[in-house]
Amino acid sequence: MKKLIGLFYKNLFLNNTLFACLSGSVVLFVLGFFFPWLGAIPQLVFWVIMVLVLLDLVLLYRTINGVFAKRVAPERLSNGDENELAIYIENFYPFNIAVGIIDEIPEQFQKRDVWFKTTMKPREHKQILYLLRPTRRGEYEFGFIRVFVKSPLGLVSRRYNFEQTEILPVYPSFLQMRKYELMAISNRLTDIGIKKIRRIGHSMEFEQVKNYVAGDDYRTINWKATARRGDLMVNSYTDEKSQHVYCVIDKSRAMKMPFEGLSLLDYAINASLVLSNVALLKEDKAGLITVAEKIGAVVPADSKYTQLNKILEVLYKEKTRYLETNMEALYTTVRRVIKQRSLVVFFTNYESMPALQRQLPFLKRIARFHLLLVVFFENTELKTLSEQPATDVEGIYIKTIAEKFAHDKKLMVKELATHGIQTIFSTPQNLTVNTINRYLEIKARQKI
Predict the structure, then answer these.
(1) What is the structure's pLDDT at 272?
(2) Structural domain boundaries of the chain?
(3) Do 255 and 428 contact (CB within 8 A), yes or no?
(4) 8-57 residue pLDDT tens
(5) Which residues cross the membrane (predicted)?
(6) Radius of gyration of the chain (CA)
């Protein structure tokens, strides 16, 4: 009995409407001292309020389980993307109710205002949709769903607590991966900024003989098939398959820098996942190597159906380290693991020319055996500072330093190019598109 009474008081909340009515009653009592003609009106108003409160309690508590609510969430969340979740709620009261819902989302989001309001008719059910954007990989713990119900009187609220604690893992951006996957399957990558590269010559992979359409190279006309069919027929070629594509991800402190909530490491991981998926769809073999002060994960290149899940599980666990990249260990691993000429995409970041100079001897050695593509990031904050007009001496100093760092980045691109090393110098938000662009360009020009 004591437990029931305790739960009654614990889940009972007085609304602002009740406080407003009681304030009005107090005002009437005060006015009664100055205007005797008010008589018993203040007491009458007070007792009417009390009766309405009792009636409101009866309406809310006579139904044991007046509402039902549950969270509808995916099995896992996608890092850096807007993930859709929902709260399903059903009304079992025989009258209209006003509902307020609190979903106890994980502490990583640092949100305390996840409050949804709605009204419901008798026996009605609704689904309330909302979006969450995680910025870190790992496990996210959701808590209770709290539902506050008000009757048409609206004087008090009854709280319902639905225990639905669950832990959802946040994986690298698989939503972005699926978007590019659908584009690649339907050959619509140009719709989202992926450039169509003019093919130089032909690959050695013959695909089919097809009808000539405007724009086809007349040098590919198959005259024997044309004579048989009576229509112009051309030979169709496809990109060479089973080429090895390795994503090498630098996990050192240089990749800890944040940008729009995500670290550079997370941008590199998301781009690597998408690139691996596109490579597998193009029937190439995708592999992965992670490195910091020592070698992390190594996933040999393969084209099996399970390869993408293997890469995804490895990337889910990767974290930034706080030491310099061990380039000697990376070179040794590349020579030991990668047995044939491959495309090696090295995701890293350089903020100064000396940082590049320390790694350059090992990059040159790797480039002797493989097609090396170094991906590093444009510092958008420095770019913004360099473009702002200077109004005082301090502003001139800041602008000059920002322009110097921006100029150093351009010098790094030229320095790598002089040694035959290809580069992608990209802002974090355009990294995925630029990386796939370059991969498709390399495929089209048969550089591997």
Answers:
(1) 93
(2) 2-61, 67-171, 174-197+240-444, 208-238
(3) no
(4) 678 889 989 999 998 988 888 888 878 777 778 888 989 999 999 999 99
(5) 12-38, 44-61
(6) 32
Q: H-helix or E-strand containing 50?
A: helix 41-61
d(CA 52, CA 44): 12
Count of alpha carbons within 13 angstroms of residue 81, beta-carbon side: 18
pLDDT band at 258 (very low <50, low <70, confident <90, very high): confident
Helix, coil or strand: residue 318: coil
The pTM score is: 0.75
Query: Which helix (H) or strand (E) covers residue 180, if one does?
Result: helix 174-185
Tokens coding 196: 């169509």
Looking at residue 6, its pLDDT comes to 55
CATH 3.40.50.10540 fits 67-171, yes or no: no
Cβ atoms of 356 and 382 within 8 Å: the answer is no
At the topology level, CATH places domain 174-197+240-444 in Rossmann fold (3.40.50)
What angle do helix axes 327-337 and 353-369 make, rounded to 10 degrees? 10
Give the integer Cα–Cα distance in Å for 78 and 237: 37
Q: CA angle 293-299-303, nearest 5°?
A: 155
pLDDT greater than 90 at residue 444:
no
Q: 221 or 289: which carries more pLDDT confidence? A: 289
pLDDT of residue 201: 45
Assign 138 to helix, strand or coil: strand
Q: Count Cα atoms within 13 angstroms, Cβ side, for 283.
A: 6
Write out the two tokens for 14. Answer: 């007085």
Kind of pairing between the strands at 97-103 and 115-120: antiparallel
Distances (CA, A) of 212 to 219, 239, 243, 256, 435: 11, 19, 29, 52, 32
* Cα–Cα distance, 379 to 237 (Å, whole number): 41
Inter-residue contact 247 to 345 (CB < 8 Å): yes
Show the tokens assigned to 9. Answer: 């008081």
Cβ neighbours for 224, distance < 8 A, ≥ 6 positions apart: none
Inter-helix orientation angle 431-444/264-281, to 10°:
30
pLDDT above 90 covers a percentage of the chain that reads 44
